[in-house]
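User: For documentation purposes, I need each entry recorded in a consistent format: the amino acid sequence on its own, followed directly by the corresponding structure tokens. There are two entries in this batch. Please keep commentary to a minimum and don't merge the entries.

Assistant: Recorded as requested. Entry 1:
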Amino acid sequence: MLKYMLFRNSKIQMVPADVFTNYSSITQLYLNNSQISTIQPSAFNGLSHLTELHLENNCLAKVTVGVYNSLSKLLILNLAYNYIETIEEYAFLGNSELQILFLDNNRITSVFPYTFRDSALLHLDLSYNAIANNASNFDLAVFPKSITHLQLSSIGVKSFKGLQDLSQLVHLDLSNNSLSTIELLSSARLSYLNLSFNSVSSLNSFSFKDMQSLDYLYLQNNLISDIPIGCFKNLDSLAVLDISTNNIYQLRVGVFEGLDLLKSLNISNNKISYIDETVFHPLDHLTELNISNNEILQINTESLLNHLNSLRFIALHNNPWECKTLANILVTLKKLKIVVQKGPEQYNTHFKGIKCETYIYAPTTSSSPAQDIPNFQNFFQEDFFNTNFYKFFQTPFNETLMQMAKSVQKEYVGELSQLNNIQLNSKVDLQKIFDNYTNFNKEVFSKLLEALNKRENGFEIIRETNIMLIIIIVLVVIGVITLYILKHFDVFKKSSNRIRTANHTTNSAEIEI
């Protein structure tokens, strides 16, 4: 008795009506990978025992009423990879036994409320369609309440509602959509949740409320920057958590509280630079940890392993490790027989393909002012004479200016050095200093400007780029001398005041006597 029929990879373009009337014993029919674009109504009449129908990879443009309605025993229908745009509202009426339906990779834009009415559908795949283009808030209530596995990857959904109506749902895939927030409400039976490759930017303590049965949670490739403490506290059964490829900067202690049964954690491809090893404290059953592709410089391996007693596998590559640090980490892990994933590095410095950097630190030395003084003395006694500044004053056109500088050094600096010992009981000496100093200022500037403007035999007295520097230095020298004189002038005034006060006190005392 014939049980299945194969027409794979054929050039059939149309399935005519009543073509299988004499093959009622067939349970599996394969018409996939052909060129079928048309199936006439009643084409499958007579296939009363058919349980599987495969029509994937054809050229079908729509699902019409009257084609599949007679297949009362049908369990599996595969219509994936066609060009289907429309599913007529009652196209599956009469398929009460249908459990698995593949409609992925088509051009479906809408699902009518009664499309799956009266079906016992358990597994539905609508991935890679454009369903949500016609709905700003996709309503999951269009699916039968019996459904347990729902594949809605890459359908363009931005938000959805009605999840609470799917009380039997165990598996939900909403990856590759445009979700920005998570509002799952209650899904007590949900075991698998895939929200990867969306635009989720934040989580809160209610994001996964009442999901005590959740075993697998995938949040990779989103825009999450922070995970609040308490976010996973109700996920008592969670075994796999993937939060890789986000914008996470830190993991706060307590963020994994409640994940006592977690076995695999992936936090790779984030921006984490520091990990407090105590953040892993609740993860007693963790066997796999991936911290690759972050900005981690250091971890305390012993402390880490004190909190991860069951760890058997770790990925460390593509962090800015210093080679010595990385070597110590690998030695410790090897002793405990923990497998380290081999990194991709082949041509640069690395251990087990894990790139690292060798930093050469220059020794640091400390010095005291007493040690620096000889260096300054040597500079002014030797190196200073080779500077352009000194050579400027040595040119033939600046001999007068040079002589004046020496005169200042001899006369005025000498006078300034004696100011500490001078008896400032009159203004005569101080006035003399001011007069001489003022005359010196005028002479210096006049000679300097004359020298700067003077040229002979094509030889420039000074490069224009150094003119401002010389003027600034001269001004600084003049300023220092000025401040020094004013300081002592202030001393003179205070001394004069003290003398007058003393005289006044003496006179008063004499009057009282």
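Entry 2:
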Amino acid sequence: MSDEQKPTTEHEETGLHIPIWVALAALAVALILAGIIMSNVLGTLVDLVFPEAVDVPLPSGAVEIDHIEDSKTADEEWLYGVDEDACRVSWFYQEAGASCNFMPTMCDVGEDNIPYLIMDEPAAMVARCTGEKPAEVSGYSYEVLVSTGSADYQTYFRVYVYKER
């Protein structure tokens, strides 16, 4: 036999040998890091794939009169009518977490601490309320303009939704 054709044994090692416990420890660290990264990104990914529907609170008895998607004013716009005092509708939004600015001399507060309309002019602006629904990706803010009604409904209110991008 020549020197170039030496017999090899089964136990002869070739290359780098890593102990199994080191490989398992590295795998565990990689899984922990992947879990931390996914916990930070998962909410955003879910919002992108399944965006949350717009859910602006509505007082009971509200009737949708008109709905405009991609209006010139907002991303979405609704007009509602309701047979309820305009000041009470505004108060409803304030209780739902919105910030409301009442027009002067339109509302007064009764003994039950609920506002009521004191000046009943047709189609008069009563309040402007703004609120928001924050989210990772698909959050939105909304604006509600409440006005006195006419013959059909006691109060009209227009809801504008501005989606965050």
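Summary note for entry 2:
The longest helix spans residues 20-49.
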